[in-house]
Design goal:
By secondary structure, this protein is of the alpha/beta class. The chain has a single domain (7-269), classed as Metal-dependent hydrolases (TIM Barrel, Alpha-Beta Barrel). It has eleven helices and nine strands. The model has no long low-confidence stretch (mean pLDDT 96). The chain binds zinc ion (ZN) (2 copies).
Length: 282
């Protein structure tokens, strides 16, 4: 049988360290081994810079930024141990997923110095300090602030550009996450002003030799295509940008889910899928 070269470089969030995930990190790693993964990147969310940026579920559970900071310390201790423990079976990369709220650049640079991750995953989940992907309600509120989806998309791609320039994340996560609650996203992503910003960001990714995440979360939710949408994926291929699957898993059940499908998609576009790039801190 022709076994696929399975990999995920974004995911492995676990209930141990992330309030909106489930299961123990070690059990998630065991699942990857069981599925035949030889390499995996674990990229826990960074702790918030202050209590202002706690997620609603964290607030509901009475957590503070310092609680989550403590958990994040434990995360790095644990992932470094698990890396050693399972070294003969799987190569684990210890990473972290970023944010873009006020103060993020300094905050993340400090975290990098403190924890020395193998690499970072660059994500934008906030616009003007409000998280837009957490719920449709929070998303729609930002649409209203900008009078339209268009303005919100433009701001998103501007923030993403700044984040990529500042942090040079080895993996640029869910490039078009801004489409999350927008049924008309395919049209919107091709509008000239938005398309221009997309091209600018892709050119920056290419010039820094970064890698894009083919993020499988939408497939797990039953949606038609992953982040990156087909039109952008096609452009990335043309530009020679590397793309690697990310399951964005938040439980044992989601670990490795749809990675075979992602590899099929990448193959159908002519992307390299036999040899994946090894993450590094840039
Ligand atoms: Zn998460
Ligand atoms: Zn994310």
């Amino acid at each position: 049988m022709n076994r696929k070269n399975l990999i995920s470089l974004h995911g492995g969030h676990s209930g141990q360290y992330c309030n909106h995930a489930e299961d123990k990190l070690e059990d998630i790693i065991k699942k990857y081994i069981e599925l035949g993964f030889k390499k995996v990147g674990i990229t826990e969310h960074i702790p918030p810079v202050s209590d202002q940026f706690l997620y609603p579920d964290e607030i509901k559970n009475g957590l503070t930024a310092s609680d989550i900071n403590r958990k994040f310390e434990e995360y790095f201790k644990n992932i470094k141990n698990l890396k050693q423990k399972y070294a003969s079976k799987i190569k684990i990369f210890a990473g972290m997923e970023t944010e873009t709220y006020s103060g993020y650049v300094e905050h993340i640079k400090k975290l990098i110095l403190k924890f020395n991750p193998d690499y970072i995953v660059g994500s934008v989940h906030h616009i003007n300090d409000v998280c837009f992907d957490y719920s449709k309600k929070s998303y729609d509120k930002i649409v209203l602030d900008y009078d339209s989806h268009d303005g919100m998309y433009e701001k998103y791609f501007d923030l993403q550009h700044e984040m990529i320039k500042e942090l040079k994340p080895f993996i640029v996560a869910h490039f078009d996450l801004i489409r999350i609650y927008d049924k008309d996203y395919k049209n919107r992503l091709s509008m000239p002003k938005i398309r221009q910003k997309i091209m600018r960001n892709l050119e920056l990714i290419k010039s820094l030799d970064l890698v894009m995440d083919l993020n499988l979360r939408p497939l797990a939710r039953g949606e038609e295509e992953p982040y990156i949408t087909a039109s952008i994926l096609k452009t990335a291929k043309k530009m020679g940008i590397r793309v690697v699957p990310g399951d964005d898993s938040h439980s044992i059940e989601q670990a490795g889910l749809n990675v075979d499908k992602a590899i099929q998609i990448l193959e159908s576009y002519g992307f390299e899928t036999l040899q994946w790039p090894d993450p590094e801190l840039l």
